[in-house]
Structures
1.
Amino acid sequence: MKLIILNDYDQASEWAAKYIRNRILLFQPGPEKYFTLGLPTGSTPLGCYKKLIEYCKNGELSFKYVKTFNMDEYVGLPRDHPESFHSFMWNNFFKHIDIVPENTHILDGNAADLVKECNAFEEKISAAGGIELFVGGIGPDGHIAFNEPGSSLVSRTRVKTLAKDTILANAQYFNGDWSKVPKMALTVGVGTVMDAKEVMILITGAHKAFALYKAIEEGVNHMWTVSAFQQHPQTVFVCDEDATLELRVKTVKYFKDLMLVHNKLVEPLT
Amino acid sequence: IQRVFFVSNKSVSDAPITQFVNCRILRDHKLQREDLWVREGRILDPEKLFFDEQGYADEQVDCEGQILAPGFIDVQINGGFGVDFSQDSQDVAAGVSFVAKNILEHGVTSFCPTLVTSPCSVYHKVLPQVKVHNGGRHGAGVLGFHLEGPFISEEKKGAHLHKYIRSFKSDPVLKLKEVYGSLDNVAVVTLAPELNGSQLVVRELCGRGITVSLGHSVANLSQAEDAVKCGASFITHLFNAMLPFHHRDPGIVGLLTSDQIPAGRTVYYGMIADGVHTNPAALRIAHRAHPAGLVLVTDAIAAMGLPPGRHTLGQQVIEIQGLHAYVAGTKTLSGSIATMDMCVRHFKQASGCSVEEALEAASLHPAQLLGIEHRKGNLNYGSDADFTLLDDHLNVSATYISGEQVWRKER
């Protein structure tokens, strides 16, 4: 893995956005060759989305030949509810960029047959040729997407019941009333994300520090599902200082020394 | 204003979609940096368009950072540009059209042509000639007539003619039909609630969906409150042509803070904010007492829109000096000539209110008054795309009706 450590949230967001930008530009997407991007929701990627919007608006980056696949969506929440992940993606990303609507894919939490919806999603990913770069976050309980502790590390897209920890963490978006948070969600599986050519995990804030420690310094364990990516050949973890608080000094020093090399990955392409 | 064209998408409706970008729109009572999407003359929900129809804009219009506000609605305007709607001799429909076209420049997208106290023959002839209709390139939309009179108080007739003032007599509802003829194209009626039989009339008119306004009256607060309980919801040009506020009987003015207004209802009041007809201090008192009810009106006369100097209008010679229109050779005011956008600017400056409040007083509030806020007076999804582009000083630079540009300032 590459562990990228920046000073603060803003710098981490910018690094991640530049990395994504460079990946798309180097791929040289076109009408016969779409760049497939997996995307997360939540507060962590907001800064990164803002930067990507900036690059799109100033003409550096176009999403015309990019296809997106979101990780998850709540079950039973009306699609136009302000807290649905559809609303999140529209307000924080899609409405500001030049992406074509039929190239975006988000699981439908109101589908009549949820299992069918999940299977269809997997098929759409295959039909698009698989995911080039899957961007994700990490929960305080170490989960990726809604793959709660105990989720199979080879799981696929499916319906999941949310853990108490997750519901409490999301209550902030429902006026602090955790009884209003949906109890089930559709989510890509750990296996689904592992299938991507490259995975980038954004982790910022001290409250995620313990989960990061469990994910990269302990063993692969289904209780901390992000740990599965230790077995992926191309993983990038982008964090701020606070997220490294539970790591060993040795780990942090090693990767900080590598920043000179890693920063080349985000230099502007000529 | 630049336009950028994309390859047309196959949307559910083949109608073209226009996206107004780089603007600050008035929505949810705040100016926000959002794009405005329009299809088939209505404001479109872009999120639904994106996810349901996988649609996107066919055309983008760059608003150059300007304010995008709902079109102004003038519920009291007697004429303009030399046209007087109450003049029997004129071809009313042509006169209304002429004014409708020329007020687009002031940001007005809908209005109520107003008739002052007139003989029955005028009502019978004029009312059927101008139907309620939407605006467009031809001019602002007509929401229905405002009949200011003839059932008003002799003592507070103002500029209205004594000989045409009437009372209800024994069968008020019948008298109504007798005097006005058909009420099909009527949106507002101003009357004096102290007249005998007025309560029956108020109920009859409200039952037909017509807004009843109190004005040209010597009613006390109690009589005014009774009229409101029967359904009256507006006050015609507050302070003018009514008893002045008195601390033991506030009269009609007291409706602004009355506790007798039925729950869930609002009493609106028209203000001519031209700096001439109402002292700014009085404007501020009313605004601070009841900000949600303030409706800006021009109450404009035929001289509005004419250049400074002398003009012969009907039987009168009027002299225009700045924002004042005098009976020629005197210092007697002959009526208002301020345009709606001038009223909005003056209101903002005199009251110190926010830009949003000033704009809403000329758009949202009149729409709420007339019960049409489901399609006019705001930029909600589904509302008619009637709006203006304004600079930061609230000068109108372009007017749109049903999403189409109907007026633009010369560069």
2.
Amino acid sequence: MNERFSSWASPRTELDKTSKRLLTAASFLLPILLWCLVSYSPYIWHPQMEITSPGQVSYFREGSLVDREVFEIERNKILEKTPEATVEQLPQGIPSNPVYLPAPHEVMTAMYTAFTTPPKRSNEPWLHESLLHSIQVIAWGFFWAMLFGVPLGILAGTYSSASYLIEPFTEFFRYLPAPAFGALAVAVLGIYDAPKIAIIFIGTFFQMVLIVAATTRKLNIALIEASLTLGCKGRRMIGKVILPGVLPDLYRDMRILLGWAWTYLIVAELIGTSSGITWFITQQARYKNFDNVFAAILMIGLIGLITDMILAHFGKRLFPWHQNK
Amino acid sequence: MTTEHPLAKWNTPEIEDRNQRILQRPPSLKISGMHKSFGHDGKMVKVLNDIDFTAYKREFVCVVGPSGCGKSTLARLIAGLETYEEGVISINDEVVSGPGPDRGMVFQSYSLFPWLTVKKNVMFGLVENGMSEISAEAEALQWIDLVGLERFANSYPHQLSGGMKQRVAIIRALANKPKVLLMDEPFSALDPKNRLKMQKYLLEIWKNIDITIFFITHDLEEAIYLADRILVLKAHPGEVVETLNVPLPRPRKEDTFLSEEFLATKAYLESLVHSEEEEVDMEEKLSMVRMVSVKSDVPDIF
Ligand SMILES: Nc1ncnc2c1ncn2[C@@H]1O[C@H](COP(=O)(O)OP(=O)(O)O)[C@@H](O)[C@H]1O
Ligand SMILES: [Mg+2]
């Protein structure tokens, strides 16, 4: 046991299987535990009171939330006026958290009920339709970014001339925040999906070119030289040596970049007519259904995590020659 | 006045005769008046200065010299991977410009294509030079047989040991039927036992096919064991010190390593190469170590 813990504290040491599982579980369980503590133990936070009986306070309503301070002040006022006030005359309440911090079980329930609750108006989408719409926007934006970003990146990583032509401008452009192009995108592309896809594209494309170029440049030069001495020349080399050589790393880059694309989703979906999961979140926040808001946010995280795990799994099969995962 | 060469007494008439016959063969690789500099912070640093050397058909040449003297650079120049400012390199009287299939190269670091199986690696050059996949495959399998890797034809390089990787690298280069095989410290990453095995393999292959080998190494024993002639370079700038005929009969046997002529050649080469290598004053460093007091249960190791 002691050995196990000492391996936890030594730099860059491989852990045993149990430790790995333990720590992975803890990585999720610790934040959840914290959330549970804050939600279910009244002594940690609970800055508000949920009124169970308003007593003599005229503006208290049963079931509404008031700050603890306000509750105390009103209670003390009554006690000052009538020191022998009965329980019925005094306001009663239980400590609770603000409405924007729902408890874990509420969010878990919402994960399910959010899908089964019909939309408020008949022309509004169900949750699964919203999610599907979001995924489509991401997929298209990422597809266009890959279609142009990967070839340009490989060119820039292969030829110095292409690097000097492509990279300086890209380097400049990637500092421009993608959301800043929102209004422009709407003016040019309309209010529906096109400007949203454009924002995802702008957010990922420029990074992609630079990252792919850097990855391509990392290809072992000995492989290129070996292919030269074997008679591989010119443009053939891109297809025969460079592309297959960087493919596993390229795949890993795409996984990371896909994660970034998700971070642009919320801004993208606010542009033009609000849509997708963002529309659902803003709508639910307006109705103060914060359990649904949390559920939706968690869903984004889960979709991202699961996609990445699936891609990682496929990566192992696609590139059997690649050792360092 | 000419003094006798220190190794002259080992040159038996037989060996002398063989060496003379080598020099009468047509030249295979010819380097003349070669200069090469690299730019360092705007200054040009001369790495190779006026190199003249000729290797003859089916000769086995080894290149030794202190580290940094430009051995790798020389091999890369011959391979066409570097450009040079002055001089001529020709293979079979054809001037070299850029890489070409007449020169194969085996690198020090493993340079097999990791995404291709052993078979596909060997086929690579054949297909690039216009052979059809089917005949390339048949030919590749023959080469793989030759080095005893049939069982690994469909393995990926990462599944092979270091020695096996270099065997594949050698046949990958040889499959293209080059005139000259350039090898840059190909066995330096192997353990001594495997290295000896690979050296024997290489001599066996060399014996059986029409190839001139230009083999770079920093291991003097390896050079003596393999070479007909050894090209000794010195550093700053890289220049030819001597082209040494190895006074050992062929075929080389394993006990060659212990023979008197072998040890004499090694001692002589050491004197050539090591007089070059900068001697750090270890004596001074060691006396400082002595000043560090040792508190130990074992006060004296002698
Ligand atoms: N591409 C390069 N750019 C600049 N200097 C180089 C380059 N390649 C080699 N050199 C320099 O040339 C010298 C000879 O290098 P190298 O041929 O690798 O020596 P060796 O193989 O004999 O150890 C070294 O001083 C090295 O720093
Ligand atoms: Mg070297």
